[in-house]
Amino acid sequence: MILDMVRYVAVFYLLEQMVLNLLPGKIYERYVRFYLGLLLVLLLLQPVLEIFRLTEQMDAEALIYELEQEVDQLR
Q1: Distance in Å from the first CA to the final CA of the chain
Q2: What is the per-residue pLDDT across 48-68, written as a single tens digit (0 to 9) for each?
Q3: d(CA 10, CA 13)
């Protein structure tokens, strides 16, 4: 699992550099780096969430919330 995570980060870094080199100017580099940093954080948190099965819990909670909203709208 750790080796897969290292691979994902390496591929992400290569894609990040490619995107940064394709930018037409340096104007938006700051914003692109910010959003790519957020994606990197999510990429690094994914194994932690899988270990504690938090993704399944969050999906279940979101589904319950959506169903409750639909029931409220039908009333």
Answers
A1: 47
A2: 777 777 777 778 888 899 999
A3: 5
Minimal CA–CA distance to 43: which of 24, 74, 15, 66?
15
CA dist 36 and 20 (Å) reads: 10
Alpha carbon 19 to its chain centroid, in Å, reads 17
Cα 1 from chain centroid?
18
Q: How many C-beta neighbours within 10 Å does residue 20 have?
A: 14
H helices within the chain, ranges in order? 2-22, 29-51, 54-74
**Residues constituting the chain:** 75
